[in-house]
Specification:
Blueprint: E1 3-6, E2 9-12, H1 13-21, H2 26-39, H3 41-50, H4 62-69, H5 74-81, H6 86-94, H7 98-109, H8 115-135
Antiparallel strand pairs: 1-2
Helix pairs in contact: 2-3, 5-7, 5-8
Length: 141
C-alpha cells in the first residue's frame, strides 16, 4: 500500500487499517485477517503484530496468561498491571506463583516517580512477549 495525498486529505491505508483493528473484537479481527492474509500475508502479519495491546491479556485463557508470565519478571508485570482494572489485576496475579504474585503486587502498589512512562514501557515489554508467542502460535490473540 502506498501513501497518497488526495486534495487536502492525507490517505494512508496501512495506518488506517492498524487504527481500525484496535477497535475490533477478536472474532472480527480474525475474520478480516484471514481475508487480508489471502491477498497479502506480509501485511496480515504486520497488522496482527501491531494491533496487539496489553489489555488483550484479559481476553486470553489462563494457560496463555501463565505462558506469558513465564517470560517476564515480576516487577515488570507489577508495573504493567497498573494499566488494568482491579478485577483484571486479581485474575492475572492469581495465575502466578505466590512469591511471584507478592513481588508483582508490591511493585504494583508502589507509587512511581514517572508512573505513566514506566507503565507504558512495562506494557510494551509484555506486548512484545505476547507478539512473539502469537507468532509461534503459543497463544491466540
Amino acid at each position: 500500500m502506498s501513501d497518497n495525498v488526495e486534495g487536502n486529505v492525507f490517505i494512508n491505508g496501512r495506518a488506517q487499517i492498524l487504527e481500525m483493528f484496535q477497535y475490533l473484537n477478536p472474532e472480527e479481527k480474525e475474520r478480516l485477517l484471514k481475508q487480508i492474509r489471502i491477498k497479502n500475508p506480509q501485511l496480515a502479519a504486520e497488522i496482527a503484530e501491531t494491533s496487539i495491546q496489553f489489555k488483550n491479556i484479559t481476553t486470553l485463557n489462563d494457560d496463555e496468561i501463565t505462558r506469558i508470565i513465564s517470560y517476564i519478571k515480576a516487577p515488570i508485570l507489577g508495573v504493567a498491571l497498573k494499566a488494568l482494572k482491579v478485577n483484571e489485576q486479581r485474575r492475572v496475579l492469581s495465575l502466578c506463583s505466590r512469591e511471584f504474585a507478592e513481588e508483582a503486587f508490591k511493585v504494583m502498589s508502589t507509587r512511581l516517580a514517572n508512573e505513566n512512562r514506566d507503565v507504558e514501557r512495562a506494557c510494551a515489554k509484555i506486548k512484545s512477549v505476547m507478539a512473539a508467542l502469537a507468532k509461534r502460535n503459543m497463544i491466540n490473540l
